[in-house]
Design a protein that fits this description.
Helix content: 40-55%
Strand order of the largest sheet: 1-2
Order of helices and strands: EHEHH
Radius of gyration: 22 Å
Oligomer: single chain
Distance between the termini: 54 Å
Low-confidence stretches: none
Number of helices: 3
Mean pLDDT: 84
Shape: elongated
Number of strands: 2
């Protein structure tokens, strides 16, 4: 089952969305269910403006989490205990392709 985070804790809106998605393989997740407390002031002139404000606030929160994860990974890569080894041509074909192009370029110089 796919999970969908919705930007509302309003029970009426949750029920309405649940009815709209009935029969689909989607589980609605509210911010309260994942302990996400964003107090977005809904002062837009339209429903769409308020929805956009919420979407941006939620996106900013997720982006901050991603930044934290990336910083932790970078610190781990700098560790003397981490040995990244060789890359996999099958799984990292972009890196492999770049290395091939770089090698060809260096052979010409």
């Amino acid at each position: 089952m796919n999970k969908l985070l919705i930007a509302t804790n309003n029970p009426g809106k949750v029920q309405e969305l649940h009815e709209l998605l009935q029969g689909m393989d989607i589980q609605l997740i509210t911010p309260a269910q994942i302990n996400l407390d964003l107090d977005v002031i809904e002062d837009g002139l339209t429903y769409a403006e308020n929805a956009m404000k919420k979407a941006i606030a939620f996106s900013d929160e997720v982006q901050q989490e991603d930044i934290g994860l990336c910083e932790s990974v970078q610190r781990g890569l700098q560790s003397a205990l981490y040995d990244r080894g060789r890359y996999s041509v099958k799984r990292e074909n972009g890196v492999h392709h770049f290395h091939m192009l770089l090698g060809e370029f260096l052979e010409r110089v």
